[in-house]
Write a structure and sequence with these properties.
The protein has eight helices and three strands; from the N terminus they run E-H-H-E-E-H-H-H-H-H-H. By secondary structure, it is mainly alpha-helical. A three-stranded antiparallel beta sheet has the order 1-3-2. Strand 2 and strand 3 form a beta hairpin.
Length: 179
C-alpha cells in the first residue's frame, strides 16, 4: 500500500520534516514514484524506520541482537572483514548500531568513573602490587636466619629458640601490615 510522506508522518507520529530527512538515508528504499509523485511503500517504510531509527536513545534490541552482543568480541580487523562479507540485508540497522555504540561508550564512561573514585583498579596494577608484597615477604623472612644465627647457636633451650624465631616472624609480619 502506498502512502504520502505526510500520511506516513501521521502514522509514525512525527513531523513531515523527520520523514523527509529519513527518506534521504534510513527509508530511502521504500520510496516509490507514481505518476511523477513520490510516495512510500507503507510496510517497507515502517520496517526500515523501525530498524534504522533510534527512539529517544532507547530502542530495544531484538533477542538475536542481544545474543550477538554476548558473544566474544572479535578484533577490529576481524570485524571489518566480517562486515564486508555480509550481504547488505544482514548488516545491523543504523538504530541497532547506534544503540550498541552508545551502550559501549556508556560502559567505558562508567568504568572510568569507578577508576577515578578508586572503586576499580586495573588487573595489571593488582598483579604488580601482589608481586611487590610477595617480594617484601620473601625478603623479610629470608633475613631472619642470617640476623639470628649467632644468637640461636648460643641458646641451649629449644623453647627459647622457638620464642626468638616466633618473635622475629611476628615482627616481620607487623612490619608488612604497617608498611
Amino acid at each position: 500500500m502506498l502512502v504520502t510522506f505526510a500520511a506516513f508522518a501521521k502514522l509514525k507520529g512525527v513531523s513531515g520534516a523527520a520523514v523527509t530527512q529519513a527518506c534521504r538515508e534510513r527509508i530511502r528504499e521504500a520510496i516509490v514514484e507514481r505518476n511523477g509523485k513520490r510516495m512510500l511503500d507503507r510496510d517497507k517504510a515502517m520496517e526500515l524506520w523501525d530498524r534504522n531509527t533510534m527512539r529517544n536513545g532507547s530502542q530495544r534490541l531484538s533477542a538475536a541482537a542481544r545474543d550477538r552482543d554476548r558473544e566474544t568480541l572479535p578484533s577490529g580487523e576481524q570485524l571489518r572483514s566480517h562486515i564486508m562479507g555480509l550481504p547488505e540485508d544482514a548488516i545491523p540497522g543504523l538504530g541497532v548500531s547506534r544503540e550498541r555504540r552508545e551502550h559501549y561508550n556508556a560502559e567505558i564512561a562508567r568504568l572510568d568513573a569507578l577508576r577515578q573514585r578508586k572503586e576499580l583498579v586495573l588487573a595489571e596494577e593488582v598483579k604488580g602490587e601482589a608481586a611487590r608484597l610477595a617480594r617484601q615477604v620473601r625478603d623479610l623472612l629470608l633475613i631472619i636466619p642470617s640476623r639470628n644465627a649467632a644468637r640461636v647457636a648460643a641458646m641451649g633451650d629449644p623453647e627459647e629458640v622457638r620464642a626468638l624465631l616466633q618473635g622475629e616472624i611476628e615482627g616481620a609480619l607487623r612490619g608488612l601490615a604497617g608498611g
